[in-house]
Amino acid sequence: MPMREQARLAIQAAHEAVAAAGRIVVLSGAGMSSESGIPTFRDAQTGLWARFDPMQLASTEGFRSDPRLVWDWYAERRAGVRAAVPNAGHLALARFAAARPGRLQIITQNVDDLHQRAGSPDVIRLHGDILQSRWLDPCRAPEPCDPATAEPERPPHCTQCGNLLRPAVVWFGEQLPPDALTRAESLARQCDLMLVVGTSGTVYPAAGLASLARDAGAMVLIVNPHASDLDAVAHQCLRGTAAAVLPLLFG
Ligand SMILES: CC(C)NC(=O)[C@H](Cc1c[nH]c2ccccc12)NC(=O)[C@H](CCCC/N=C(/NCCC(=O)O)S[C@H]1O[C@H](COP(=O)(O)OP(=O)(O)OC[C@H]2O[C@@H](n3cnc4c(N)ncnc43)[C@H](O)[C@@H]2O)[C@@H](O)[C@H]1O)NC(=O)OCc1ccccc1
Predict the structure, then answer these.
(1) Which of 82, 110, 118, 245 is positioned for an S-S bond with 90, CB 3.0–4.6 A?
(2) Active-site choice (15, 90, 115, 127)
(3) Residue nearest to atom 43 of ligand 1 (CA)
């Protein structure tokens, strides 16, 4: 059977699975935002990405050893997020959720706000929000200092106690927000269908959610133009992009 026909039948079967599923969970990664112009961790080869290991930059050690370098990296990425717009994949999910309240829950590893800007309600963010900041260390001042009053430096610092501002994201070696992780794990165990979109499946505990869903009896489908570490967990891998495939599944 010609490849195109196989792909068409696979999309059709996945579309029927989406229509039949009562509780759908979407687990998204950087590939979800790639067609919005935000480089994935894998593809990013420009600017500071090309010169430094993201896992080094995205760590407390990395920030403490060179706060300005890490702050500038996040400033570069924040500008990219602000300039980006949701793609057809984000919009297809938001439209489906609006038309069928309670049927679709998004769990994302992404620190951008494109799912939210597309109109998706109540997105579970496992790795934080790149557009928010918080104090690096607990504020030691008698009256906790308001981050908004920080001295506008790179990174901004507290005029009272010298505390540094950091992006409100989860760095490697840091715990995920317990409430978000607990909700994500219980949704994974209860869903009928988990759609894994645009992730290499290399970062834990996020990547472990697909096996949780499979072991609990859910169907697991992958949307990714390339092979990933989660292919073995999936019932079907749809080799296409988020913006091309999701409108076909949720249209
Ligand atoms: C790398 C890995 C080996 N290391 C980890 O997983 C570590 C350590 C670890 C924990 N458990 C383990 C178990 C096994 C092995 C290691 C570990 N995990 C942690 O450190 C976690 C924290 C992990 C979170 C780190 N923060 C991020 N982001 C925020 C920051 C920032 O963004 O700056 S992770 C970051 O990288 C990950 C990148 O992965 P992807 O999103 O998948 O992107 P990638 O580029 O890799 O792939 C893109 C994919 O898209 C596809 N694609 C491309 N274009 C498209 C397209 N158009 N459409 C569709 N798909 C597309 C490509 O083919 C590709 O497959 C994302 O999660 C992203 O959020 N914390 C923790 O475990 O804490 C413990 C703890 C517990 C208690 C108390 C204290 C501590």
Answers:
(1) 118
(2) 127
(3) 30
